[in-house]
Amino acid sequence: MRERVFYTKNLTKVYQVGDREIHALRGIDLDLYAKEFVVMLGASGSGKSTLLNILGGLDTATSGEVYYGDQDLVKASEKMLTAYRRHHVGFVFQFYNLISSLTAKENVAVVTDIAKNPMSAEDALALVGLADRMNHFPAQMSGGEQQRVAIARAVAKQPQVLLCDEPTGSLDSATGVRVLETLETVNRELGTTTVVITHNVVISKMADRIIRLSDGRVIETTENSERAAPATLHW
Question: CB–CB of 110/98 below 8 Å?
Fold first, then answer.
């Protein structure tokens, strides 16, 4: 029996914009499991980023249930959510958010210094194929290398979950494949539950499961029995 990492039931999110209500999520029922690689597909405005932010404790639901294991994220205090984000979740965004005055190693060490059981910055950078670039500054690195530093920073604290919001969105296709290979390495070698949200249908071929969202709803969930290697993807 698979270990369930996330559970949501009738999850909604409504934003108040002036006198208008924006319904970003409209009753999401979802299970995510340990060690799986999930791709969430959807056009802009489908609700996928909102869902990812709620799962990661960066945002809160308007109604419904959201559990990480047996931890109720809806009822969690801000202090509890901060601890949850710090110790259990790694984030990778479209933009790398590296500190320009720090080397790659120092950027990763920012996280390892506050984590409970981190891997070393050196080991994290080696995992993403950047052992020989650890003393370089972001300005001395390509976009793909900077994104891999961001991934190393996210996984260095050894989180159970890695949440990625359009991680290849600002990269060309060849560089994007290298970043996806890095995410797959993390998933396979560390067993980190990995969720990637994207609008790129091709990326879904490397997933164990594909979840499609539209207008704040899950419209389809598909098991992928023939998970492709990133190097075989053609964008």
Answer: no
Q: How many domains does the chain have?
A: 1
pLDDT tens, position by position, 161-185:
999 999 988 888 888 888 999 999 9
What pTM does this model have? 0.93
pLDDT in tens, 54-111: 999 999 999 999 999 999 999 999 999 999 999 999 999 988 899 999 999 999 999 8
Extended beta strands in 34-170, E state: 37-41, 63-68, 71-72, 89-92, 161-165
* Alpha-carbon span 62 to 50, nearest angstrom: 12
- Whichever domain contains 94, its CATH number is 3.40.50.300
Q: Is residue 235 part of a domain?
A: no
Residue 20 lies in a domain: no
Residue 77 lies in a domain: no
Q: What are the φ/ψ torsions at residue 4 (nearest 5 degrees)?
A: -85, 125
Say whether pLDDT at 158 is over 90: yes
Closest CA to 73 of 49, 54, 92, 91: 54
pLDDT of residue 175: 87
CA 103 to CA 98: how far, in whole Å?
A: 9
